[in-house]
Structure formats: structure tokens, C-alpha cells
């Protein structure tokens, strides 16, 4: 049986070749991801300003943090605690979920990076991924242990779903569209998956990564991360920017589908997770993606022949995902394949 626990020693399977190491000394301290207060009703232009801030953040960073988001702190804390407990159970307890088969609905695995001329390199993290659609059929797929997982997840998913509806409404407005446009456009039911990431302290964070550089292939991601433990970094103008781990905030980022739908105006930005020597870091990412049959392409109202010609061709979301899985272990270039010739 595969043992998925990370050893405390940094064996060669985790060590990246020199040109792929994180260069931790070179993190930019100049920029930082915008922090947006969702309850900023201080003046009568509050809503208009909020939409402006979201629009700017989606264009410049593809990332922002939100505070006063309305999800009760206890619900967030219970989710993070259930995730931490899940990964801290003896490895036998999650062995039934350990797999390298990406078609499995519920799975525990390590991400890895293919490196030319050597064995693939494992990331210094363990990942647990499963769907989060509504309905009674979900709970029984989820772990029985820790006992609180199912309930904590159910509550959390309900809250995050409501939050995502508000976010899509704001992002639709930011694009000058009707509030319900994006959620409708993504199709029903959407493809909903979650990924919990567990990053134990690492003896030498310079030699490895928690998660390699990637963009999220979905439409929107809601991330909760351990308060006060840095690790998530975002690429901005060619430099890595650390996302400040603000307590009680969510990190929101746009996925590839939003870049295509907005015809490149909003960005799906490269990001990664780095490790640290002393502190455990845990994150929960809730992904919202189109229905597998939804045809994704630049939104009609955002294109014209002269100034905003479409830069992507249309495709079924299932087609995009198939290509995404085909590029497993590589620095993926998926949306680039759907680019139209200039
Ligand atoms: C992800 C991701 C970042 C983090 O799960 O796609 O980018 O902070 N996670 O763990
Ligand atoms: Ni990501």
C-alpha cells in the first residue's frame, strides 16, 4: 500500500534541479495583492467603488484577498481543523484514498514535476481532492475520519457557494455585464472540486517547492490558508510576490476560463506555494468551473472586429480539461493551445 506521509528528511525525490528552485532571497517586497473589504458601505458610492477595485485587481493581479466576506469564522476554523486532522491521522487511515489515477473522484496524492533526464520530483506537500456538488450523494464519498470532516465540509461548502455567487455577480459587473451573467454562462451544474493542501515544515525550503508554478484551470478559486504562515506566491511583472496570510481573509483568484471568457482582459495568473522551516501550513482551495459541456470562448459582448478581436477560439470545457490532464507534471500551456493566430 502506498504510504503517502511525507518523511521528515528531505530525500532526493523532493530535491529540484537548480534552475527550478524557488530562489527565496528574491521575493519582491514592493508589490502586494490587493485586499478588498466586501462590506465597505462607508459612502454612497460604496458599491461602485467595490466593483472598480475588483475590476482593477482582476486586470492587474488576477488575485485579491477579501475581508468582511460574510462567512462565519467558526465555519472556516472548523474546516481548517478538519483538514489538519485528516492529514495528521496515521497514513493507514487515508490509504484508501491514495491514488495516482486522476479519474478518481476522491483522492490523496502528491503533485510532482517531470524533470528531463531524471526521476520526477515530488512536491513537499500532500493533497486531498474531492467534488463539492450539492446533494446527498456527496457525504458518503467523504472520509469518515476525522469524524467532524463531513459536517465541517458540508457547512463550509454551503457558505462558500453563497460567497461565490456574490463574487461572480461583482466580477460580471466589473466586465459591464448583468450580475447573473457569469454564473449562467458557466452552465448548470458547474464542475465543483476542492483541494486541501498540507505543507509540513521543510528542513531546506530552498531546495524544494510546496506546489510548482501553475495557473488554475477552472474559473474561480476561493482559498483559505493558515493564518500568519506565508507560502503562497503570485507572479507579478516577472517577480514573485508573497500573499500576506491575513487572518479571516480569503484569497480569490481567477482561473484560465475567466481569462478566456474576458478575452484576456482579466488574468489567470501563475502562482506557487513555497515551504518554510518551522511552521505547518494548510490551505483549502474551492474551485468553481464550467459544466463539462459548456462551450467556453470570449464573451460576445466583449469582442468586436476592430478593437477587441477574439484572441481565443471556443472549446468545450471537457476538451480543455482533457488537455490539462495530458500535460500532467509539466509547466502546463493549455489556454495557449486555444489561442487564435494573430
Ligand atoms: C491550489 C493552490 C495555493 C496554496 O491549490 O491550486 O494554488 O496556498 N494553492 O496552497
Ligand atoms: Ni492554484
Automatic annotation (TrEMBL):
Record keywords, A-Z: Iron, Metal-binding, Oxidoreductase, Vitamin C
Membrane-spanning ranges: none
Organism superkingdom: Eukaryota
Classification via Pfam families: 2OG-FeII_Oxy, DIOX_N
Coiled-coil spans in chain: none
Keyword Oxidoreductase in annotation: yes
Xref: InterPro entries: DIOX_N, IPNS-like_FE2OG_OXY, Oxoglu/Fe-dep_dioxygenase_dom, Plant_2OG-oxidoreductases
Residue span, Fe2OG dioxygenase domain: 190-290
One Gene Ontology MF term: oxidoreductase activity
Family: Belongs to the iron/ascorbate-dependent oxidoreductase family.
PANTHER family, sorted: OXOGLUTARATE/IRON-DEPENDENT DIOXYGENASE
Protein name, per record: Fe2OG dioxygenase domain-containing protein
Species for this entry: Carya illinoinensis
Lineage, uppermost ranks: Eukaryota, Viridiplantae, Streptophyta, Embryophyta, Tracheophyta
